[in-house]
Amino acid sequence: MEKINLGTLFPGIGTLFTGGIDVFLARLALIALGLFLIYLGKKKILEPLLMIPMGLGMATINAAVMVLPGGKQGNLFVDPLITDTKDLFDILQIDWLQPIYTFTFSNGLIACCIFMGIGVLLDVGYMLRRPFLSIFLALFAEMGTFLVVPIASAMGMSLQDSASIAMVGGADGPMVLFTSMILSKDLFVPITIVAYLYLGFTYGGYPYLIKLLVPKHIRGIQPPPPKKVNPISSSQKLTFAVIMCVVLCLLFPVAAPLFFSLFLGVAVREADIKPVVDFIQGPLLYGSTFFLGLLLGILCEAHLILNPKILPLLLLGILALLISGIGGLLGGYIVYWVTGGKFNPVIGIAGVSCVPSTAKVAQKAVSQVNPKAIILQDALGANISGVITTAIITGLYVTLIPYFLK
């Protein structure tokens, strides 16, 4: 009887021991990380719609490594490195996630679909209610997006990679994905994963940052209502969306798909096209987010954790979010001082554009001190303005950085 080779019979196990000790440990580490992400999603510590498919994809892809024809190790999920047209058409019929990756992920379509869903959820009236205040706070809350670029460059990263990881400071996943896909094709997967993993920092970390930097007696301030507030009609909101879309696309054509997607969502909402609104904020947004998480997990093969740039990316990502949070509070303090102590500086942290999480974090931090204080409207204004300013910074980076490097 022929001797049974367990490595051949169970290639997932066999390939664990044929790639060296570093690959062995990396695959085990990523399987464990994937299982941990599933746990965090189930416990609602991180977004389950994203974390559960990402975690399961990450664990599965590192378990399902096999020897393909020709002796090369691989899987039957996706081949992100394939470029030859004939080979691509062949692999589209073999790897079951290749069509989704090729036709929705690698061209940025999935990021635009998510951004369209975000647009449908935005009520720009909160921003238009006090536009200058909202924009001022949002700009300060982009501090990490700007300051991490020179920091990353000083650590030896290229300008393109520095700008891509700095976008994590905007706390807007689709923006990070879009920027890194254009500027950092070799690192866009780890950069995007860092971004989505660290979005949990806005839930868990920012409340402690607020308590550290804003004294209790200031956190409980109830800002006075604006002296005059004109109601913002749906026609005004629609006009704003149309004008902003056209102007920004004129200035930054490279980022036009993002601008168009965001403001199309706003326009559909304000035009009250209910069946389309229900489709975009339901199946399109949830489906796109699900497949984004799944593809990010599937792309996390062992070579990812072996890349020496991963540790700097992890450090720079958390630093970008930390600096942005501090910047938002600094902007809030400036308004507090200018108004003679009548403004609550906690509102500033809502300028970090994780909609609507940072606005809710700000309101919760204030309510714990003064249950009667309501800052949510101003916080949402800064939050929505943060989304738009992050989109503009994306346009600036993907337009100007290649120009400077010519």
Write the layout of secondary structure elements.
Elements: H1 6-9, H2 11-14, H3 21-42, H4 48-63, E1 66-67, E2 73-74, H5 85-92, H6 98-105, H7 109-121, H8 125-129, H9 131-140, H10 143-154, H11 159-166, H12 173-183, H13 188-204, H14 206-213, H15 216-219, H16 234-251, H17 256-270, H18 274-298, H19 302-306, H20 310-338, H21 357-367, H22 376-404
Antiparallel strand pairs: 1-2
Features:
3 domains; single chain; 22 helices; 406 residues; 2 strands; mainly alpha; two-stranded antiparallel ribbon; globular
Please characterize this protein's 3D structure.
- The structure is a single chain.
- With 406 residues, this protein is an all-alpha fold.
- It has 3 domains: 1-75; 81-106, no CATH class; 107-221 and 231-404, no CATH class.
- Helices cover 69% and strands 1% of the residues.
- The chain contains 22 helices and 2 strands.
- The chain has helices spanning 6-9, 11-14, 21-42, 48-63, 85-92, 98-105, 109-121, 125-129, 131-140, 143-154, 159-166, 173-183, 188-204, 206-213, 216-219, 234-251, 256-270, 274-298, 302-306, 310-338, 357-367, 376-404, and strands spanning 66-67, 73-74.
- It has a two-stranded antiparallel sheet with strand order 1-2.
- Strand 1 (66-67) and strand 2 (73-74) form a beta hairpin.
- Helix 4 (48-63) packs parallel to helix 18 (274-298), helix 7 (109-121) runs antiparallel to helix 12 and helix 14 (206-213) packs across helix 21 (357-367).
- The longest helix has 29 residues, at 310-338.
- The protein is globular and about 85 Å long.
- The termini are far apart.
- The mean pLDDT is 89.
